[in-house]
């Protein structure tokens, strides 16, 4: 009785399980998700009910909605991905954990991702980016931005991950030929590879052949309890490696792809970024690796990255689930319902970001001028992205080498993109590349 439809937000739940999933997914694929949300807002107001990916859902968006979502206590609103995502990544992934479990696994992950540890990785990433350019860019005239691979096993893992992604936001029906089914199969194959890696890395750690922070798996294996027992279980390691690869690999490569796309389209911004990197390159001896100090001089490049994230956020919206009946915006969201917050819709709000469609990196010159909960490409609150610093290093190092070693121009016929659920450019963004004669590599 308490849940009389009077209190529920307007809108229709549609066909059970399926509801509006198809029309939302289609809008995402056609890069019309913002319009789709605006249409619903016009029809039902800022809050509406629907069924997405198997579960009754309330759609919310806007600055107040972001604040509500990111600051709610985890006993009322918890992180819960759609059933499809849960099954594909694994139940023990950080996005599914809460309370003490979330803290234990998040702390373990953050012990690897904190700036102190990461500063030792600047040189490693520099060498890795150079190796990648050497293997995949030098000597070629055209590359596609959507490939970053080295070694057969990594190649296989990346392939499986891409297949996993395809069914991440899908109706969770496990029948042959459904996207969900092929993602589950890809998960199984990825899991086997990660299990082998865990075995190898556990051996190397036990025989002191590797240091605790050698890589993320080793770092998670090294977190020990009072009796020197591993406190992050194998299931948790597998789920969180898959999550980190999904959360960390695609997001950053998408960001890089869209920066490259933008630089090819905007000569003034390209010139300003190039100038910043040429100044840094001049101060380095041939072959000298980048340092943390060099990265701190790449301020304009990071504004370009933030502006790219504003316009093309890899994570467009966020799912949560209510653990009890919740009142918000004058409506009831019943216990067990899903909340989908289209968090990044604030990025397009002209009252927050004037001329929202214009690419203007200097918006981020004074970050405190951006109102709270309005730039949310990395989320917010307790679950704010722990990979912010890692992705910042990766992006700055990669752009440094790309822009000092190559010129590029877009050569695809179609430069639009779609979302699956992350944005991916049509044709994989092929670009013509030309090495610069004067680089020191
Ligand atoms: C441009 C790059 C990135 C973007 C835009 C991004 C975005 C986000 C967002 C929006 C969330 C919050 C999701 C939510 O509230 O439901 C998140 C969480 C997360 N991100 Fe990132 N991310 C990026 C890079 C990375 C990297 C490089 C890593 C790891 C190396 C990473 C690991 C994670 C993890 C583990 C979580 C879950 C945190 C938790 O639930 O406590 N991310 N990310």
From TrEMBL:
The protein's name in its UniProt record: Cytochrome P450
GO terms of molecular function: heme binding; iron ion binding; monooxygenase activity; oxidoreductase activity, acting on paired donors, with incorporation or reduction of molecular oxygen
InterPro entries: Cyt_P450, Cyt_P450_CS, Cyt_P450_E_grp-I, Cyt_P450_sf
One GO biological process term: sterol metabolic process
Record: residues binding heme: 385
Reported cofactor(s): heme
Protein family: Belongs to the cytochrome P450 family.
Residue span of region Disordered: 422-441
């Amino acid at each position: 009785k308490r849940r009389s439809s009077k209190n529920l937000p307007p809108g229709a739940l549609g066909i059970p399980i399926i509801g509006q999933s198809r029309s939302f997914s289609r809008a995402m694929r056609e890069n019309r998700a913002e319009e789709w949300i605006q249409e619903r807002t016009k029809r039902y107001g800022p809050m509406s009910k629907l069924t997405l990916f198997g579960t009754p859902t309330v759609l919310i968006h806007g600055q107040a909605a972001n604040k509500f979502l990111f600051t709610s206590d985890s006993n009322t609103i918890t992180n819960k991905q759609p059933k499809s995502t849960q099954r594909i990544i694994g139940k023990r992934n950080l996005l599914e954990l809460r309370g003490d479990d979330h803290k234990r696994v998040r702390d373990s992950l953050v012990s690897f991702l904190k700036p102190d540890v990461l500063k030792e990785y600047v040189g490693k990433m520099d060498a890795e980016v150079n190796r990648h350019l050497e293997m995949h860019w030098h000597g070629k005239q055209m590359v596609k931005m959507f490939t970053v691979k080295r070694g057969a096993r990594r190649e296989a893992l990346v392939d499986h991950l891409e297949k996993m992604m395809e069914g991440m936001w899908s109706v969770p029906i496990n029948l042959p030929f459904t996207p969900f089914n092929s993602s589950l199969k890809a998960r199984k194959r990825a899991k086997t590879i990660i299990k082998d890696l865990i075995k190898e890395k556990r051996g190397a750690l036990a025989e002191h052949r590797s240091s605790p922070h050698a890589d993320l798996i080793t770092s998670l294996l090294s977190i020990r309890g009072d009796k020197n027992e591993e406190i992050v279980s194998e299931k948790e390691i597998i789920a969180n490696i898959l999550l980190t690869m999904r959360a960390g690999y695609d997001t950053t490569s998408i960001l890089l792809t869209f920066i490259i796309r933008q630089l090819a389209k905007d000569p003034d911004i390209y010139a300003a970024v190039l100038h910043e990197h040429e100044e840094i390159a001049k101060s380095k001896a041939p072959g000298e690796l980048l340092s943390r100090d060099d990265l701190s001089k790449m301020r304009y490049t990071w504004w370009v990255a933030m502006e790219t994230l504003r316009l093309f956020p890899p994570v467009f919206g966020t799912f949560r689930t209510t653990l009890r009946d919740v009142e918000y915006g004058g409506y009831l969201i019943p216990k067990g319902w899903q909340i989908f917050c289209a968090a990044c819709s604030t990025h397009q709000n002209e009252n927050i970001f004037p001329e929202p469609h214009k690419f203007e990196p200097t918006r981020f010159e004074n970050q405190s001028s951006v109102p709270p909960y309005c730039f949310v490409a990395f989320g917010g609150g307790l679950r704010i992205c722990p990979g912010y610093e890692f992705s910042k290093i990766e992006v700055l190092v990669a752009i440094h080498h790309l822009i000092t070693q190559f010129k590029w121009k877009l050569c695809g016929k179609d430069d639009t993109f779609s979302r699956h659920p992350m944005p991916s450019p049509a044709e994989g963004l092929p670009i013509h590349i030309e090495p610069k004669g004067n680089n020191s590599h």
